[in-house]
Each structure stands twice: as structure tokens, then as C-alpha cells.
# Entry
Amino acid sequence: MKWDYLLSYFSLQYLAGPLGENHFGVIKAIVSYLIYSKIPVINVEAMCREWGVSKQKFYKLLSIIEEIELLNIVRKSSVEKPYSKGAKIFLSDPVMYSVFDGEIGNFREAYVVFSLKGIGKVLASKNEKGADFVFEGIKMEVRGKSKKERMQILSSGMI
# Structure
């Protein structure tokens, strides 16, 4: 893969300070995992152990790659703990899932987040069985062709 396109070296260096090769390895692992994973959530402990970085450094890297707009982190509430990975993590540019032949379901959800985050607050639903996201108080379910009917439209939106 051509990671030069995805990583802005100078932005990362400016925001994080000196970074070692293992830090770039962690960032590449995060992005790669998110592209191909069926569930857009990261196991922090496993990645820290595998790449030899502290949890504090991992969360800092996660925060930085969100800040340089490589990732969209969708949280369950507007107020989160200082070290939180969020409920769902997507690539900021949904097209990247297609470029790397990634998971189509993540593309769909990433597209919804990408489309709505510029005009309002997108949160992950606290009850995943009821909806995927809550946008400005409206529950939203992102559907694929294999998803079954699983919610009624009350005051919700369906996508």
C-alpha cells in the first residue's frame, strides 16, 4: 500500500513531536485494521502490546490522526473520558474503503458520518439494536442489503 498518501508526516511531527518507526507502524496498523475490519472498533490493549507503545501514547496518536482528519471518531456522547477511543472509528474519506477494497458496510457508515458531521453532531447510538447513529436527536440506521428489518420508524430517519 502507498501510505505516503494517507499520512502527513509533517503534521504528525508537528502535533506529536518526535515519532519513532513503531509509532508510524501503529498508525498504519490502525488505518489498515479499519479498512478491512467488519467492526470499526480498535482493541487498544492488543495494539499497544503488539507495537510496544503505552496506552497514553496510543490515545495521543489516535487523537492526532483524528485532528489531521485521517479518521472520524464517533462517540456515544458529547462528553467523553480523556482517554477514549470512541464507539466507532472510520476513515474520514469513505472513498478510501473502495480504493483499498475494504469493507462495504464500513464505507456506508463512514459516508453517513462524513456527510453529516459538517452540519451537526453525529453520535453513536447507545443502543446498537435500535439505530447506528443519532444525528441532532434523530436516530439513524445505515442499512446494507443483508440487514433485516430491525426497527420501526417513529421519530427516526432511515438510510
About this structure: Residues 1-6, 149-156 have pLDDT under 50 and may be disordered. The chain has one domain: 9-158.
